[in-house]
Design goal:
Chain lengths: 761, 219
């Protein structure tokens, strides 16, 4: 290579989250000792700039201080002069594709090629045959996003189409990260994706103008806390994959490096994570194993001879190394200490300048990225206009509030909807009657102990699931018999000042001590059982089975009970909290424990109670036939299979009507930025735990009720608490005014029973 | 049959006084007293194993029992060991780890067989492990070190693993003590796998090697 030609390499920071520039430079120096390397960066603190391997450095202003036209002209001049430019920072690759375009000497993919890397599908590499984990748009209706997270047991990723991914483990974390990522990346193409477990692997490739130069496979051996490769094993790519990759790159006309990251699950199936449109930071590690991709790429691009020696042992690792700082560049001074932030989440560190601090301006400068130009459909996901009620739930809300003008906030029961939920469950039970074991329902009184709900449960033929003597007396007061009662909980004999009710249907104990005491009470219950606390599920309730000595005590207690009552087991972990798939696994595990107890004690399990905690939609979908079959196979002596719904029957069946107290609308804006209502978190204590349907009703037009969708207006509660935010973004009619109503659906069950008085004088 | 193909391995084993005992050593198994004591322990353990799989692993066919190393520490064990004694242990050796993992894989519906291997380590490590056993053994049963199986040599150690037979007659080799799947490639350095022996009754392909019942295969 002529010494007059230079290779510019940008993205040189080599920190905890390193970019690839320093590695690319080392690869090229290793292959071509006389090559002239220019290191480019936009931050004085970029550590790779100080690497003596560089012949020259080009330190540019921060991205937000760049004059785009001047910079593009400078790049054009460099490339036209025959010099090579290799960008190593993916956000910069996008910037170049959209602001500069292509050039034979710019070894970086085009905008069209980059579209093929968009997640979740990464369509450009679909022919590799990798699986794409299930996903949905993060801007799907909230109830759909919530259902997706429940179904996948709250182990999902929130990802942008090209950048960033956050682990999601709660509804609250989803809302927070969605808000932040949307703001940071200015895209509504965020999506939720199921997490796949497995080992992390990569395919790294180099191509020039659509022609594959070489590709390797890397298995990560050590990974940092930030998920970055620290050590790995490298080998040539499997020939079948190589052939497919070659076709993909040709179709996309790819130039430059790239890395396809994927998960190999324990069964050997590959699941794509993403394609980074540049070399990975570990690229020099691969070069040391005899697979120097940047050198092979440059050799192809400039038609230079390059023969690579093979390393006998194809593994690499990193070390931390101090190097002297170039005087010509220096280091950034630390900011004033008063700017230092107290790390959150137990993190160490004292703040100070960082590599990431200069990336937001680059992101902000990418105003014209293609993924920012939303289609109509995408716009409609972000801002859903209010609409007239069409489904039966909305119509009932409209009817219930038609002539409303009372005091607010006020909770109003939706009796039709509640009856529908009860009837729907009865209909589904009817369909299971032909199979064994028989499914029986215990209505969870604590969830909604109103006369209406208890009477409806009794009329439906449900048992009364109680957690105290007080609840038993409440049920008896409404006509239930002791033999209708299932008694649970750690405080089931409260208050001790009244003798316990005997002759119960079932009683499940929370400790071996309690079980031993209960079996001595004459005629306490037809069935006496234990609530199982499963290993690996964190709970303060139930009897732990994971200690062998304790297990022996359990067996001894059950042998002692033989002949006094039927034996039952109880399991209750709310499926909406641990997730549906995890609940199913826990159920299978319960069956194994029950089988072992039966076999070791000779006492047959007669009743199995699977508790409650189902989200309304999940109970609706629960496959009773599958559960019956599993119980029938594992425990053929079980006569009754119990569920204890409460939330799933009553959560939807109440609304909370509130009035607008204040409307805050910035000048020149159509929609208000915030409204204050007279409801608050005291009436809706679980408002941030799950999505609530919301409605608008005009105070002066009885026939104007609207179903509200996503939007930009925050709904604030009436009390002086920082977390009294009832919605982060709703689309309200622009003419909303003080005195209009905002109605919250899904406000029954624990929203009511756990509500409290606050700020009422 | 045994370790003859690789001359360097043969030479290396020649320096190990107990190498003949390693290659002839039977794989470990747990005793069952045919009484409630052992059956309670066995069923408790198998139920626990089902619970410990967790939902994340449950979606896969092959669920490696990685939780074993959280439940037990690695160290000397008393032999022979029965199920009822196992459940009192906090520390178990690689033989017990392998037996338990084998039982778990079988309960999951896989064909799992006993496996043995020889691994290369440096002398310093080996000396520390000798001390670990020497100091740990009296704690577990008061026996002197000379009375237990001498698994540590100068540069080579004996180790027990699980051979999982897949439906396509290929094998996977799982180190249940340290939660790793072995690769069918030899290596000369630290922790290099030198040889493997399977007790699977069928011929199994493992990379470019063939595992045959009872035969030591040089890597």
């Amino acid at each position: 290579m002529s010494m007059t030609k230079k290779v510019y390499i940008s993205g040189l920071h080599s920190g905890q989250n390193p970019t690839a520039g320093a590695g690319i430079a080392r690869c090229l120096r290793k292959a071509f000792p006389k090559i002239y390397l220019v290191g480019v960066d936009h931050w004085q603190g970029s550590s790779g700039l100080h690497d003596a391997i560089l012949d020259e450095t080009l330190l540019l202003p921060r991205w937000d201080q760049i004059n785009k036209e001047r910079y593009v002209a400078q790049l054009q001049e460099i490339l036209d002069a025959g010099h090579i430019w290799i960008p190593a920072l993916d956000v910069e690759v996008y910037w170049l594709a959209q602001n500069f375009g292509t050039h034979p000497n710019l070894l970086s993919p085009s905008g069209e090629a980059l579209q093929g890397t968009a997640k979740p599908d990464v369509k450009g590499f679909a022919n590799l045959g990798f699986g794409v984990a299930e996903s949905i748009s993060a801007f799907s209706p909230d109830e759909e996003a919530h259902a997706f997270l429940r179904q996948n047991s709250w182990q999902c990723w929130l990802k942008g189409p090209f950048h960033e991914a956050k682990r999601i483990n709660s509804w609250d974390s989803f809302l927070r990260h969605r808000h932040d990522m949307e703001k940071d990346w200015k895209t509504s193409r965020l999506f939720l994706q199921k997490n796949n477990f497995g080992s992390e692997e990569s395919i790294c490739f180099a191509a020039v103008h659509g022609e594959l130069v070489h590709a390797i496979h890397m298995e990560k051996r050590l990974i940092t806390g930030e998920g970055k490769t620290w050590a790995g094993g490298v080998k040539p790519l499997d020939p079948a994959l190589l052939s497919q990759l070659k076709k993909s790159l040709a179709q996309m006309g790819w130039s430059g490096g790239g890395e396809i990251e994927y998960i190999r699950d324990p069964d050997g199936k590959n699941w794509i994570i993403e394609c980074n449109p540049r070399y990975p930071a570990w690229i020099y590690g691969a070069a040391m194993t005899g697979m120097n991709l940047p050198a092979r790429m440059l050799s192809r691009a400039l038609d230079m001879a390059f023969i690579e020696p093979k390393s006998p042992f194809p593994y690499f690792t990193r070390v931390v190394q101090e190097i002297p700082v170039r005087e010509a560049i220096g280091l950034p001074r630390p900011p004033d200490p008063s700017l230092n932030k107290w790390p959150v989440g137990g993190g160490k560190g004292k703040g100070g300048p960082s590599h990431s601090s200069y990336l937001p301006p680059l992101r902000d400068s990418m105003e014209f990225r293609r993924d920012d130009v939303l289609t109509e459909e995408e716009e409609s996901i972000k801002a859903v206009p209010p609409k007239t009620p069409s489904d039966s739930y909305s119509k009932e809300v409209e009817t219930m509030t038609e002539s409303f003008n009372g005091e607010t906030p006020l909770r109003i029961p939706m009796e039709h909807w509640t009856q529908y939920r009860f009837q729907n469950l009865l209909d589904r039970l009817q369909a299971t009657k032909a199979s064994s074991p028989e499914i029986r329902i215990g209505f969870s009184i604590k969830t909604s102990p109103t006369d209406y709900h208890i009477n409806l449960a009794r009329q439906s033929g449900f048992y009364m699931e109680c957690i105290s003597q007080k609840e038993i007396h409440r049920a008896i007061g409404l006509g239930a018999k002791p033999s209708d009662v299932i008694l649970n909980g750690p405080g089931k004999f409260w208050p001790l000042t009244t003798p316990p009710v005997t002759g119960l249907h079932s009683l499940f104990c929370d400790s071996v001590e309690e079980f031993n005491e209960v079996i001595e009470i004459p005629n306490i219950s037809q069935c006496i059982g234990m609530r199982i606390k499963l290993p690996q599920l964190s709970s303060r309730f139930g009897i732990p089975f994971d200690d062998f000595e304790h297990f022996q005590r359990i067996l001894a207690a059950i042998r002692k009970m033989k002949g006094r009552a039927d034996l039952g087991f109880h399991f209750h972990m709310a499926s909406w909290s641990i997730g549906v798939k995890r609940w199913k696994e826990a159920f299978r595990s319960i069956l194994t424990w029950c089988q072992s107890v039966e076999e070791l004690t000779g006492v047959k399990v007669r009743r199995l109670d699977l508790g409650g905690g189902f989200f309304p939609a999940d109970l609706q979908e629960l496959n009773f036939a599958w559960i019956q079959a599993a119980v029938r196979d594992a425990l053929p002596n079980v006569q009754g299979l119990y569920f204890e719904p409460g939330r799933s029957l009553t959560q939807e069946g109440e609304i909370l009507v509130s009035r607008v107290l204040s409307v805050r609308k910035p000048e020149d804006e159509v929609a208000p930025s915030e409204v204050v209502v007279d409801a608050c978190i005291a009436e809706l204590p679980l408002i941030s735990n799950y999505p609530h349907r919301m409605f608008f009703k005009s105070s002066d037009s009885a026939d104007r009720t609207l179903v509200l969708g996503k939007g930009k207006t925050k709904v604030l509660g009436r009390i002086c608490m920082e977390n009294d935010v009832l919605s982060d973004g709703i689309n309200l009619p622009p003419d909303i005014k003080i005195g209009d109503y905002i109605i919250f659906g899904d406000a029954g069950a624990y929203e009511r029973t756990m509500s409290y008085d606050f700020g009422r004088g | 049959m045994i370790l003859a193909a690789d001359k360097s391995l043969h030479a290396m084993l020649g320096t190990e006084e107990v190498s003949q005992r390693w290659v002839e050593h039977p794989t470990s198994s747990l005793l069952h007293h045919d009484k409630a004591c052992c059956e309670e322990a066995r069923l408790w353990f198998m139920s626990l194993a089902r619970s410990m799989e967790g939902w994340s692993a449950a979606q896969f066919e092959l669920k490696a029992p990685t939780w074993l190393s959280q439940e037990f520490e690695w160290g000397p064990s008393i032999w022979p060991m029965s199920w009822c004694e196992l459940v009192k242990q906090k520390t178990i050796d690689c033989g017990v780890f392998a037996v338990l993992a084998r039982e778990i894989f079988r309960a999951q519906g896989h064909e799992a067989h006993a496996g043995q291997c020889l691994l290369r380590y440096n002398e310093t490590c080996c000396n520390h492990w000798k001390d670990l056993w020497k100091n740990g053994m009296p704690k577990v049963d008061g026996k002197k070190p000379g009375e237990v199986f001498n698994w540590v040599g100068h540069n080579v150690v004996y180790h027990e693993v699980v051979i999982v037979e897949l439906p396509d007659q290929t094998a996977k080799v799982y180190d249940s003590t340290f939660n790793q799947w072995y690769e069918p490639e030899g290596r000369s350095g630290f922790a290099g796998l030198l040889a493997v022996r399977s007790e699977g009754p069928r011929l199994l392909r493992w990379g470019n090697k063939t595992l045959s019942c009872g035969e030591w295969v040089d890597l």
